[in-house]
């Protein structure tokens, strides 16, 4: 994997590429190091040598010289906070404060300043027109980078200049990135600025607290839990904490109301996961809060540990698992046909232990939840189904049904529109789409009436 120039100090980056003897480096490399160190005299001296015929002039040569995609400004703002070189490059040479470097990752001067933790340089660039809203192809901006690097003071600066505390990207919001990297002080700053503690990352459906638990960032998880994060979201925080032996997080989750009787995506209870993957201490912690599991004959701490280990050994046999999965699916289908939706959901859950992202099984279980009137669980399964196969119209159909039950008519219309693009012959989905459109308009009319006090306005929408 190629090394990103923002991942390590510039000097170290160049030493790894060129060796420790700077005198043997190309002049362009020595040039960017001079800028990095804030040595204007050295910078101009090397520029004169590079301008062999004296045609361009020193300032023009300074502006045009690059190494490994970086110009002098990119290197200077990653330095030691010496603003004299920044003023020279921007005010006298006229370098663009928003110019990307030409490396594969394409970073602006402001991103270089953030990566280097150079607060004075970041402030200087913003004062001179740096765009803090510039996005890369994944929607990442400098507020995301600052949060991911744990640069709390720069995060404060960016927020004071108008950065969005809940800025979206494919990798999450700033709070997600700070939490998953374990930057406690940065999480505190973002929470002080009212960051959304329950925002989902569309690509993986993680909330900030789930990201912290998945990354085993105990201090960040505690902060988010204490701030009121939803501890019973899609990704089963308690189950993950129990599996990874995160005792302190498990305690916090239980105190915050996490459901110890909610299984993970494979149908395993937190106490079962603690028994197999965690520690006895965690089993003892969960035991008083967990309802007896029907197929555990000896409901005691030792009995649970022995049962969980035996079942885990059985699941390691792939042929047996696939056969069991097929049988359970068939039994689930039969129970569904007999309108025994509770039994069907249990059977599908057991079958999903072998493959937690089996699209058809998730779609089937989503239908069970719908019949049982649990729109939230239906939506969670439908979203997992869609993540597994984004081009399957049925996944969008199930998500649309769940959103309808939750009265999210506008979102339902969006999802069903995409579903019909994928499966235009699906009459049932088409009918549901038009029903969603009707309810969306009705909902809008009701809102307009409440706001304006006149039903006449509805006819104008």
Explain the overall architecture:
The chain is mainly α and 461 residues long. Among the domains are: 1-131, Ankyrin repeat-containing domain (Serine Threonine Protein Phosphatase 5, Tetratricopeptide repeat, Alpha Horseshoe), CATH 1.25.40.20; 357-460, Serine Threonine Protein Phosphatase 5, Tetratricopeptide repeat, CATH 1.25.40.10. The relative contact order is 0.04. The chain has a two-stranded antiparallel ribbon with strand order 1-2. The protein starts with 9 loop residues before the first helix and ends in a 9-residue tail after the last helix. The protein is built from 26 helices and two strands. InterPro entries: Ankyrin_rpt, Ankyrin_rpt-contain_sf, Cul2-RING_E3_ligase_SR, TPR-like_helical_dom_sf, TPR_2, TPR_rpt. Pfam families: Ank_2, Ank_4, TPR_2. Keywords: ANK repeat, Repeat, TPR repeat. TPR repeats lie at residues 393-426.
The outline comes out as elongated
Write out the strand line-up for the largest beta sheet, numbering strands in chain order: 1-2
Q: How many β-strands, per DSSP?
A: 2
* Secondary-structure element series: HHHHEEHHHHHHHHHHHHHHHHHHHHHH
The CATH topology of the domain at 1-131 turns out to be Serine Threonine Protein Phosphatase 5, Tetratricopeptide repeat
Model regions low in confidence, pLDDT < 50 over at least 5 residues: 454-461
| Through-space gap between termini | 54 Å
In CATH, the homologous superfamily of the domain at 1-131 goes by the name Ankyrin repeat-containing domain
The CATH C-level class name of the domain at 1-131: Mainly Alpha
User: Mind telling me the C-alpha Rg?
Assistant: 28 Å
The CATH architecture of the domain at 1-131 would be: Alpha Horseshoe
Helix content: 55-70%
Keywords: ANK repeat, Repeat, TPR repeat
TPR repeats: 393-426
Pfam families: Ank_2 (PF12796), Ank_4 (PF13637), TPR_2 (PF07719)
ANK repeats: 105-137, 138-170, 170-198
